[in-house]
Amino acid sequence: MRLAVAVIAAVLALGAAPAAAAPRPLTVASYNIHAGAGQDGVFDLARTAAAIRDLHADVVGLQEVDVHWDARSEYRDEATELARALKMHVFFAPIYDLDPPAPGAPRRQYGLAVLSRFPIVAARNLEITRLSTLTPDATPAPAPGFAEVTVAAHGGPVRVYATHLDYRADPSVRQAQVADMLAVLDRLPGPEILTGDFNAEPAAPELAPLWTDLADADPRAGTYPAAEPVKRIDFVTASPHFGIRSARAVATTASDHRPVVAELDRMRPVSS
User: Fold this and answer.
1) Rounded to an integer, what distance in angstroms lies between the CA atom of residue 267 and that of residue 239?
2) Residue 52: partners with Cβ closer than 8 Å, 6 or more residues away
3) How far is CA 36 from CA 62, 164, 252, in A?
4) How far apart are CA 48 and CA 71, in angstroms?
5) What distances in angstroms separate CA 46 from CA 42, 81, 117, 264, 272, one per listed residue?
6) Alpha-carbon distance 89 to 4, whole Å?
7) Are 96 and 111 in contact (CB under 8 A)?
């Protein structure tokens, strides 16, 4: 009798379907790196790289990235150096692109970057409304520095955006920037993630249109200033193609901002 029971149990075990493994989440971060300077004001790109490495993110949107910009970052190409140190792919989207300081020197550039562990299959530097900090008596006008990167993520391609919104107290430029970004995000179907330093907190009226189309991966913690945050102005947001598994702000003073890192689950389409 015991033998018969054992045989039946073995047959049932062999016939059971293996449990499906839970799909791995997509880990996405946003980090204003302060051009490689920490909260202490000291430039240390190796410290910046270590802080990004500790996020264990698949994709990272970076703001305040210098590429041969000036002495504050030793005229180094931060985008390329960080990608090399972290063994990631990179796309750099300059906001400002200036003539070199001397003939034969590289152009001076400042802007945003996207780092990705996945291959980058397409990338564009798009324009949104900006109010230049370099031109006297400037007026708001379209300018580059809105990075769009399509990555070959597990589960299929994903469009990832990195942005840095206007810092001034007057919200009018940010309001225009939000409208510009939504016009881009709405033009194509498919999963999208928007990362960035929005220079406004989640309840700011100028950000309200974002929350119709995007979910805020809320870390329930401040991000600025890094040492003792009093407000949350750094974001990872996602289209309804994703569910938010977790989000956190990471305590580090490698910049004057804290990074936000979120785990996103790709949602399965609901069959009719």
Assistant:
1) 10
2) 29, 31, 33, 60, 82, 86, 115, 259
3) 11, 16, 13
4) 17
5) 12, 9, 19, 28, 51
6) 58
7) yes
What residue has token string 């152009």?
107
Nearest to 107 by CA among 80, 144, 134, 75: 75
Residues 6+ apart with CB under 8 A from 69: 35, 75, 108, 109, 110
Alpha-carbon span 259 to 55, nearest angstrom = 8
* Cα(232)–Cα(163) distance, integer angstroms: 15
Q: Which two tokens stand for residue 174?
A: 């940010």
Measured from the Cβ of residue 264, the count of other Cβ atoms closer than 10 Å reads: 27
Q: d(Cα 79, Cα 83) in Å, to the nearest integer?
A: 6
State the 10-residue block means of pLDDT for the chain, 272 residues long: 42 45 88 98 98 98 98 97 98 97 94 98 98 94 98 96 98 98 95 98 98 97 98 98 98 98 84 35
- Give buried/exposed letters for 87-96 (b at 16+ CB in 10 A, else e): ebbbbbbbbb
Kindly report the number of other CB atoms within 10 A of residue 38's CB atom.
Answer: 20
CA distance 36 to 46: 8
Whole-angstrom Cα distance, residue 85 to residue 45? Answer: 10
